[in-house]
Amino acid sequence: MKKIRFIVNPFSGVSRKSNLEQLVEKELNLNKYSFEVQYTQAPKHATELCQAALISDIDIIAVVGGDGTVNEVAKAMLYQAKPLVIMPGGSGNGFAMHLGMGRDIQKAIGLINKAEEIVIDSGQANDDFFINVAGIGFDGKICNVIQNESKRGIQAYFRSMFKEGHKFPFMHAEIEIDGRQIEGEFISITIANASMFGYNFTIAPEAELTDGLLDLVMIKKVERYKYYLNSWRFLNKSIMDTSFVECLKGKQIKIRTKAQTDYQIDGEGKGITNSLSVTINPQSIRILKPRD
């Protein structure tokens, strides 16, 4: 019988987690798995709980939390033999959605019973690890703004988008991807390992976790109304059909902007910078995901 440790951030997202143990008992195949639940108490505590699990008799580590908690646990799982389960425990749950875990914690627990193990890529952006997406420009601004909001959720996300969208300055950027040089004006530049930010908001529809490549998604400068008119395309995965979005795949990416601008790592605002150096960690984390 394999033992699972659920590492839970009780404060993340908008869903209740007080009944998590009861849900696990109901949905997990207890003939196949035993489990324990541990709750984080402060930032970075999730990393400590994960590291302790890695040197214990725990076989599988499951994280239940938002982007920041997932990042804290996943970076401790780099090149480890034990697999990780990403549960939908935050607000947007973009990475869990990409893996097919859905948005409902109860249903996601049941999916563990017949999950398969794969080995996925991850990335480094400057000195920061990421498993989902990193970005500079407008998406970084939204993450920085939301980080200071008292309430999370889709309403806060879209409120910030519309509030900041008409005034956020375009950035002049020089980009290098695997030796290829690009220069231009952009509103955002995102490096994606998986496909979506959250809330089904898909930034890189063709991103694959196991291809050894990162997707560089560049949203170019156009009249601002075109962003609003095409915003629905992020929800049906057709954003690449517009003329102002370009995607390239590569392993090493360097971005330099003339002025400092906002940036984010796995949905967490990191302040401002004028340079981002990104590399891939190929086949670096073992993941349990629902069978196709």
Number of domains: 2
Count of DSSP strands: 15
Largest sheet: 9 strands, antiparallel
Radius of gyration: 19 Å
Measure the end-to-end span. 24 Å
Shape: globular
Name some characteristics of this structure.
single chain, 292 residues, alpha+beta, Rossmann fold, Tumour Suppressor Smad4, 2 domains, nine-stranded antiparallel sheet, four-stranded parallel sheet, 8 helices, globular
Describe it.
- This protein has 292 residues and is an alpha+beta fold.
- It folds into 2 domains: 2-123 and 285-290, Probable inorganic polyphosphate/atp-NAD kinase, domain 1 (Rossmann fold); 128-281, Tumour Suppressor Smad4.
- Helix content is 24%, strand content 41%.
- It has helices at 20-27, 45-54, 67-76, 94-99, 105-111, 138-147, 154-165, 224-229, and strands at 2-8, 33-39, 60-65, 84-88, 115-125, 128-130, 133-137, 171-177, 180-192, 196-198, 201-202, 214-220, 245-250, 252-265, 268-290.
- Strands 5, 6, 7, 8, 9, 12, 13, 14 and 15 form a 9-stranded antiparallel beta sheet that branches. A 4-stranded parallel beta sheet has the order 2-1-3-4, with helices on both faces.
- Helix 1 runs parallel beside helix 5 (105-111) and helix 2 runs parallel beside helix 3.
- The longest helix is centred in the middle third of the chain and has 12 residues, at 154-165.
Summary, kept brief:
With 292 residues, the protein is of the alpha+beta class.
List the helices and strands and how they pair.
Blueprint: E1 2-8, H1 20-27, E2 33-39, H2 45-54, E3 60-65, H3 67-76, E4 84-88, H4 94-99, H5 105-111, E5 115-125, E6 128-130, E7 133-137, H6 138-147, H7 154-165, E8 171-177, E9 180-192, E10 196-198, E11 201-202, E12 214-220, H8 224-229, E13 245-250, E14 252-265, E15 268-290
Parallel strand pairs: 1-2, 1-3, 3-4
Antiparallel strand pairs: 5-6, 5-15, 7-9, 7-14, 8-9, 8-14, 9-12, 10-11, 12-13, 14-15
